[in-house]
Each structure stands twice: as structure tokens, then as C-alpha cells.
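Before relying on records like the one below, remember that each one covers exactly one chain. Contacts with other chains, cofactors or solvent are not represented anywhere in the record.
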Amino acid sequence: MAETLLQVEDLNVHYGAIHAIKGISFHVQRGEIVTLIGANGAGKSTTLRAVSGLLRPSHGKIFFAGADITGLAPHKIVARGISQVPEGRRIFPEMTVLENLELGAYTRRDRAEIKRNLERIYGRFPRLKERSRQVAGTLSGGEQQMLAIGRCLMSEPELMLLDEPSMGLAPILVREIFSIIEEINDAGTTILLVEQNANMALSIANRAYVLETGTITLSGAAKELAHNERVKKAYLGA
């Protein structure tokens, strides 16, 4: 039986008077890719932000590797082993590629291992190595997404939260980014993926949850949900 790495129980999140997440529960097992799919405004990004500590839940519990992390500060959650690739990439545009990557390791103190980790990331993303001294804001959209993923990997996360990695990218780059996500997962990182491109998300995920206006309405094996008539009609352009 696979170990449950992330357990979310009865999660509720409010933005002022708006009840954005309404008592959702889900889990992610170690080694899985799990995706949250749903329309814009369904609460997908809000869920990730609650897990990473950027939003404080109004009710419910979040457990990571068996420990209660509900309401912990974001930097403490990163130190525990959860790191997020934010929607819109959110790189630091005035800093170089290398400086962005080094910032990803800010919770770590093991200098020699950080250096080895940087070389592994350059091995996976040769374009980042070529542009290591370049100001990050001058990179293309695809390169910026690779930088955001590389920066996340610098913290050596057990669980990577990916928020809309395909946003604003050309189809050929979307395929490249999703291939990279699969490689990262194959190398041992568990992934919780939020993605508007439901076709792509379901094609690489083990399991999926469908979010509608802050509530989970469907869940199951990704392959099964990809053939579900309701999902096909609402999210897969069928």
C-alpha cells in the first residue's frame, strides 16, 4: 500500500465573505501525479495556495508526511518538503537565471549539495545553463516556465505543487513542459498539478479530482475521468 504523502481534510477557505473552498477532502500518495481540474474560478489555485501556506484555511486540516502543517508559515512548509511553481511563473525578472535558481535553495545550508543540485537542473534544462548570467525577464515564456520549475526543484521538494504550467505557452512547448513534469515524477518527486488543459493533465496523471465552485464533484483514476461523458463535455471539448 502506497504511503499517503498529502492528506487534506474538510478544507474551507474564505476570501472575506466569499466561501471559495467548501469542505474539500483529498489525498496524494507518494510517487503519484494527481491533478485538480475545473473551470476558471473553481478554486484550484486557492487549494494549492492553502497547501503551500500562502492562504490560511478558515476550517479543516492539512497533513504532510503524517504531520499537521495547517497554518504553518510558507517558508516552514518549503523546509518540510513542499514547493510550489506559481501560476504565471513569478520569476524575479531583474535577477539573473542563476540568482533565481539560488533563491530556490534559500531554506538549505548544504552548500556542496546545492551545487550538485544546480548541475542536475542544468543537465535537465541546458537552456538555463546557457543563459545562467542572463537577466530572467529577457527569457521566452517557455524558458521562464523551465526556470520556475528549476527554482522549485532547488529546494529538493518531496511534493511539487504546479499551478497552470501550460498557461500562455505554444502547443509544442506545452508538450515539452509536460514531458519534463513526467521526468521529474519518474525521478521520485510527487506532483499535485492544477491545469486548465484538462486533456494534457489527465494524460499524465494517475488520479484526478474535478473541482466545481469550491467543491469536489468527481474523483477517480485519470484514465477513467478522461472517458467520463460529463468531464468530456465540460472540460475536454467533446
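The domain at 4-235 is CATH 3.40.50.300 (Rossmann fold).
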